[in-house]
Amino acid sequence: MKCRKNKSNPNNPLPPPFGLYLNLSFFSYFDSTTPLITHITVKEKGMALWFCSARFLVFLFIVSALPIAYIISQERAKTDHHVFHYHSSGFFRECAKWDDQGRRFLVSFLEGGVGEIHVPQNYTPDVVLQEVTVVKDSDLTGNASNGIALDRPRNRLLVAVADVLGNRYSGLAAYDLSTWKRLFLTKLSGPGDEKSMADDVAVDADGNAYVTDVKGSKIWKVGVDGELLSTLTNPLFTPKEWYKSLLGLNGIVYHPDGYLIVIHTLSGNLFKIDLAKGDEVKLIEVTGGPLAFGDGLELISPTKLVVAAGNPSGRLVESTDGWETASVVAKFKGPMHRLATAATVKDGKVYLNHMFGMGYPRKTHALVEFVL
């Protein structure tokens, strides 16, 4: 393509769009009697007119309509597994856990807060449920509510709180499941500390909470009354490839035999942390497929673990030797246009929480059954 040279630099005949940018910059030569528009060539004018033309608008509409049409078709497609749909006030729901005693799903808001979705006794699959906000703390505005854990013996919900964009604050909040009164808020890191992001939480038999830091790949231990007890780090948490450290420790569960199982997001590494042996860390050897992009975890039996992992939405991992080794025994492919971030169990069935809601102004979210 031939273009007009810039008068102040005749050796720089850049083609559009660079030539256009150069001609419109203050480095271009023009006098007070010559309009700037004269420095744009005929072809450049043609390009500008094309982007403003009806044909371009039609083209843009068609291109944008294709993914929208695909999403609509996926939303309406019949499946052989059950899906709980619910209307929400927000687009992003990070985690969901089933509360059997309250007959409700509890969900965390990426914009901060917690909601509940009641499932009535007479529920039928065609019913779209409604989300109700139960927690919205003004002093935590600007922070996300990430992973959550039910602590039924103490009638409370534990919530990992974090500054997702700036990584300047991480905390753990506890709320009474009956009144939603906040029981404590523990600061895990602040602006003066290294960057961190509290991501997920698990609770042991004594009520101690374990919070993963997906930014710094460490685990905070918080006592039953909210006191910060310790911080666990280990060289095994740092992969050899630097880029795999961009998203570190994520989903975490407590095993009834007294140890933690935690996943590293980008490496897919699964770790066993034995609390009875001084927080001994071991890499679990996993066969049968990678666990890369693993997010939320749910222990559905002492030997079986569900990993929510984006798409394919979920993987079932099984161990027969106390989680020294494990193997991927099943994979589940959920909706391609959604992103699985957490797992929970309701009435013996596993459901995967998906991050993104669809629709406007009412956003529709999906809790999709993982068919084992």
From TrEMBL:
Keywords assigned: Membrane, Transmembrane, Transmembrane helix
- Identify one Gene Ontology CC term for this UniProt entry: endoplasmic reticulum
Entry's Gene3D superfamilies?
Answer: TolB, C-terminal domain (2.120.10.30)
InterPro entries recorded: 6-blade_b-propeller_TolB-like (IPR011042), Sensory_adhesion_molecule (IPR053224)
Quote the SUPFAM superfamilies the UniProt record gives.
Calcium-dependent phosphotriesterase
- Give TM segment ranges: 48-72
Quote the protein name from its UniProt record. SMP-30/Gluconolactonase/LRE-like region domain-containing protein
Q: Which organism is it from?
A: Gossypium lobatum
